[in-house]
Design a protein that fits this description.
The chain is mainly α. It has ten helices and two strands; from the N terminus they run H-E-E-H-H-H-H-H-H-H-H-H. It has a two-stranded antiparallel ribbon. A hairpin with a 5-residue loop joins strand 1 (about 60-65) and strand 2. It is elongated.
Length: about 280
């Protein structure tokens, strides 16, 4: 092998073998590889005047939870988060309004039309709220749910005592001939879930509270227009009522989260839109 040193001379075979055993055989050792850190090594301080240099931006950027883009060398070379463009809820809302206007001229009964529109609004709200990476769409806690129920009770109890008969008449106009079970499913389950996820989840996060309130009022007028067109007083009162309630739900969502806003709307709908008809 390389490095084997044998002395030359007139030696016999046996003497040569014994000398081979006594010789010190050395093998070359390869040098250790150069280990470089991931980050660039610190540069020596310059003795000349300091000059400002422009930062070198990486072709890739990563988004952090604080909303600031990380343009460091390692983060740019190995991106940690895939950036997905946020979807503006204004355009899906315009399509929803167009669809709602189109269903007016169909032969769907009132409850079937309500279910169709609220289901589409619910699916769109789920898509926009969670696909946009909404950080407020967290798992609700028991404390936030209790706050939402508390807000709903504080607002709905006085109205239930004062205008119970008027609320019952309005629900009869909006749900003509519907069973109590159908009213419960529509007013207490489907409508709160759809409106909360779309207006308080997607619209409020992207467009603000005012746009969410106006969108909720337009949706209420659009949904109930065919059955309440003959009674414009009830229709106008319902639209104004929806806008005011949307403002309250938006405040609860901003203060205690999306789960609290959903709990608040479920409580208000149950107290003001379902219980009056049930008691009567």
């Amino acid at each position: 092998p390389p490095g084997l040193q044998i002395k030359a001379g007139p030696l016999s075979g046996s003497r040569r073998l014994s000398m081979l055993g006594e010789e010190k055989i050395t093998f070359p050792i390869a040098p250790s590889p150069d280990i470089r850190p991931f980050s660039s090594p610190p540069t020596a301080p310059s003795t000349g005047p300091a000059t400002a240099t422009a930062p070198q931006l990486s072709p890739f950027t990563t988004s952090s939870t604080s909303g600031v883009e990380d343009t460091s060398t390692d983060a740019g070379r190995y991106p940690q988060t895939l950036m997905i463009p946020r979807l503006d809820p204004l355009y899906p809302f315009i399509l929803f309004v167009a669809l709602g206007l189109g269903t007016i001229y169909t032969r769907l009964e009132a409850t079937g039309r309500y279910t169709l529109l609220w289901t589409i609004l619910l699916a769109t709200g789920i898509l926009l709220t969670y696909a946009n990476g909404n950080n407020r769409a967290e798992k609700p806690s028991a404390n936030s749910l209790l706050w939402g129920v508390g807000f709903g009770l504080v607002f709905s109890l006085p109205l239930l005592i004062l205008v119970s008969s008027g609320l019952s008449s309005m629900v009869d106009i909006l749900f003509p001939g519907a069973l109590m079970s159908t009213r419960f499913q529509s007013l207490v389950i489907i409508a709160p879930a759809a409106e909360t996820l779309f207006f308080r989840g997607a619209v409020q996060e992207h467009r603000g509270i005012v746009f969410g309130m106006l969108g909720a009022g337009i949706t209420g007028l659009l949904i109930y227009w065919p059955v309440a067109a003959a009674t414009p007083g009830y229709l106008a009162a319902m639209g104004l009522f929806t806008v005011v309630l949307a403002g309250i739900y938006s405040f609860v969502r901003m203060r205690n989260g999306l789960g609290a806003a959903l709990a608040s709307q479920i409580t208000v709908n149950f107290m003001l839109l379902y219980l009056p008809s049930l008691f009567r």
